[in-house]
């Protein structure tokens, strides 16, 4: 191990390298602690989204389970982050070159995995994303099927629950020559809700996953910093070993 010959007065160059290595490895250690905390927070947030009372039922009723694809990817990545953070701490403190290379590989994998998860989540939860056509198709199908009790009940729950009307607004009913249901109106003013359920549902999902996506992208940046610092540490350890050999000879 690189630290075995330290403290033996091997010369000013080696001593300077020792100081640099000390600084790098403890900075890397701190970054891994922060990464682990991010991993725990992301895992808890994903778990909360998956088991939140009522939310899961809504998504099943509206056939929007695709929303959870990105959540599951991020959930798995967060578990990886928590495990790999310990590898990063250990490899940095031990100055083990092989473990540091393995750690760099895991950071690259987690960066890619996290980026994919964040992209999928954002693609199924933001305005003008892939989730909006899915919501619109489902709502229009429910509006066009008023004779079915289940369709009426689902539509009533959605419009009453989030305060919206139709897919894109009240005109969806008027264009189909259908009466405006009572749940399309504000219970206080009696006026029809201006926004459609597509926009309202998207904004609702956006609010739930905005923080999650931000935390994941921040973790991806930490992975990049960790990989770069690990490579710097590897080069410093190798140089220290070479200079120690030269000095001894």
Quick overview of this protein structure:
By secondary structure, the protein is an all-alpha fold.
Question: What does this entry look like structurally?
Answer:
It comes from Parnassius mnemosyne. This is Tetraspanin. It is a multi-pass membrane protein. It holds the Pfam family Tetraspanin. It is rod-shaped and about 95 Å long. The model is unreliable at 1-9 (pLDDT under 50). It has 249 residues and is mainly α. Helix content is 75%, strand content 0%. The protein starts with 11 loop residues before the first helix and ends with a helix. It has helices at 12-51, 55-61, 67-94, 97-123, 131-143, 149-162, 171-175, 197-248. α1 (12-51) runs antiparallel to α8 (197-248) and α4 runs antiparallel to α8.
The largest β sheet comes out as: none
Compute the number of helices. Answer: 8
Average pLDDT level: 86
List the secondary-structure elements in sequence, H or E: HHHHHHHH
β-strand percent reads: under 5%
The tally of beta strands, per DSSP, is 0
């Amino acid at each position: 191990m690189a630290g075995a010959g330290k403290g033996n007065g091997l010369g000013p160059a080696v001593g300077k390298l020792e100081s640099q290595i000390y600084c790098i490895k403890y900075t890397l250690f701190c970054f891994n602690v922060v990464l682990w905390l991010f991993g725990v927070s992301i895992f808890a947030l994903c778990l909360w989204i998956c088991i939140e009372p009522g939310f899961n039922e809504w998504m099943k009723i509206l056939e929007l389970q695709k929303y959870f694809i990105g959540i599951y990817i991020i959930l798995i990545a967060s578990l990886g982050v928590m495990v790999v953070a310990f590898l990063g701490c250990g490899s940095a403190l031990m100055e083990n070159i092989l473990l540091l290379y393995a750690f760099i590989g895991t950071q690259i994998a987690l960066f890619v995995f996290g980026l994919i998860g964040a992209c999928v989540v954002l693609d199924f939860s933001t305005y003008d994303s892939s989730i909006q056509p899915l919501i619109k198709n489902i709502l229009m199908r429910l509006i066009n099927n008023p004779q079915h009790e289940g369709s009426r009940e689902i539509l009533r729950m959605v419009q009453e629950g989030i305060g919206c009307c139709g897919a894109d607004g009240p005109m969806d009913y008027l264009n189909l020559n259908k009466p405006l249901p009572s749940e399309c109106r504000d219970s206080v003013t009696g006026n029809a809700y201006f926004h459609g359920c597509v926009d309202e549902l998207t904004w609702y999902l956006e609010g739930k996953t905005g923080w999650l996506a931000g935390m994941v992208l921040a973790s991806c940046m930490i992975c990049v910093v960790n990989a770069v610092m690990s490579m710097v540490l590897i080069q410093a350890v190798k140089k220290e070993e070479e200079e120690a050999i030269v000095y001894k000879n």
